[in-house]
Amino acid sequence: MAEVVLRNVKKIYSTKKKRKRTEVVAVKNLNLTIQDGEFLALLGPSGCGKTTTLRMIVGLETITEGQILIGGKVVNNWTPAQRNVAMAFETYALYSHLSVRDNLGLCLKAKGVAADEIKGQVEQIADVLRITDILEARSSGLSGGQQQRVSLGRALIRNPSVSLLDEPLSHLEASLRLETRIEIKRIHQRLKGTFIFVTHDQMEALALSDRVAVMNFAELQQVGTRSDLYDRPANVFVADFVGEPPINLFPDSAIQSDRGELFAVTPRGEFKFALPPEMKAKLESKTKESVTIGIRPQYINVQDAEGRKPLAGNVAVFEFLGETGNLTVTNQGLDINVLAPPDFHAPKGEPIELYYHPGKVLLFDAEDGRNINFE
Amino acid sequence: MAVVALRNIVKSYDGEKVLRDLSFQTSDGEFFVLLGPSGAGKTTTLKVIAGLEDIDSGEVLFDGKPMNTVPTNQRSVGMTFESYALYPHFTVFENLANSMRAPGKKHSESEIRERVAKVAKMLKIDHLLDRHPGELSGGQKQRASLGRTMVREPSIYLLDEPLTHVDAKIRFELRLQFHRLEELQQSTTIYVTHDYVEALSLGNRIAILDNGEIIQIGKPKEIYHEPCNLFVAHLVGQPPINVLDAILETDPQGPALFIPKGGFRISLSPKNHKSLEQVNAPSELKIGIRPRDIEILHGPDKAMVKARSDVFEPFGSLGLLSVIVNDIYLELLVDPDMSFEPDNPLGLNFREDRLLFFDPETEMNLLSNEG
Questions:
Q1: What's the CA gap between A6 and A135, in Å, rounded?
Q2: Which CATH number applies to A246-365: 3.90.230.10, 3.40.50.1000, 1.10.10.10, 2.40.50.140?
């Protein structure tokens, strides 16, 4: 167990082609502290630098600039073994001719640990991972979920100070993914170690971690809990990347003042959102510029409640999705998505009133995409 | 527009049956979804309808006319493939136009240009017509692939896993687009998927396929609320339905279900008890309850079931809570803004009116109409 600190970490890949040097910045000035015992997810689209970051923490990649500290010590020049970190890979990387027991015990054996102690440790980790019944099976005959657990077990058995997981769920089919995801969280709750998890799937990131670090184009966009990313996204990218169903975004919208009240209005006046009075001060400098309005489908309802304001439109599509429902309402060709109860019913084309809480309306700067509410 | 009917289709590869006596009939203009796990025979069924696969026996009928001997190009079907099947060296325009230039089709160049433009606009790819497939995103490729099918104006659309290879956000967008494309909504469309969310969203009706056989055909809400057996109950819904072994008891205090592994009882309403008696339900059975239909009660003392929290995963619109009751794990869907510490006591309440009852041997739904 240990705290991991990244201080101004930078990674530049440079290649030489015909005496021409080209440089690609993979990670730009990254500052991030992962607390002892914390489960942190590194989330972002492919190519955002999340895996490079992970590999620098493990020691599989050199650090161009900056420092990485594990348990208070600068580890830039330490080998992966010296860092005492463990990594479970996207592909399971198990020895197919060995049994699960041998796969798990291999690194302890290599360290020269006594046979009966290896046996004890293997059985202990197998119990945590619930793979006791397959200890004698060859790893080649296992299902994807089982292989993933064995791979995880092999990483955890070394009692690492930090465990790093690189997209461990991406090759599993849906029901197994859900099962393994819960299992990983359960393991973290039991072992209480420092876990860093890389994923491009925002659902996974929210489900598993205490905090999520969102990256894009080699840069850290925001670090926060689910409610930080949901209700206080730093910019349009985070707002759009995190959330399912996706957030409603209305670019080129304007701020209007009507009898002392403030409104954010979509380009042709399709939807007019009342803003809370406390926004006034923040918006004073912005009234003439355009903004992007954002509001999550979860925060718009088909039923009225205290403090809510109405919006009008016509039913375009209702999707019954079993656990939830998605309602798309349109006004003069502009759509807004609303989370509706699965038993909702309204015919296509029917006029409908929607209700939202003004405090949940997000405004983003049209130029730099920054969240105006929380600047 | 057309009615597609399959009658007793049998198809085998190397002596192994992949379609076993498959029969169903769409209605005119219906959006009909084939849902099942991989290897169930979904794509083979589409290929049989398109005439791309021979069958051992049975009949394919369009509007009542036998099609078995009619070649693919005369069947008026349009099929899109999971892998998009675009020509990499053609532009999007050429890819679309090419499917109108197939042998035996005579369209003037101006007609082709007009129709490609119309379809491209509908699919919102009109700004991409000069690009090559390599320069498109997954969602754009999928739209181009659908466009290739649409320009031919088939009377029957056959769509094979069109949303499998696009990311969640694009899938959401395209699903909504499918709902709003008049062509798809008015023509008979047969849509293959392994994703229950797509099936529930898009289908007028859904046929559940497993191992070359139809397991159930029904409207989305029927499939979700009245699955004919455990297989269907499991296939539809995420997280999957909770299934428990139960013993039917007739206590002096009234009928109840005892869950041995959980060590708790759920009292049965007279309605459910009567229905179970009418079908001669065995005293040992399996019950199913969806994660949404288990409620958390404040003050665990009054609760039907006393549980301990295990893992909580908050998502956008729902939170997934896993709880432990003695020897069993249960999964619940709750408000994502709640918070749960591990290993805390909780009181649960099962929505008795939402319980499903299955025969432990046949795994059939004891109370479903088809069962």
A1: 38
A2: 2.40.50.140
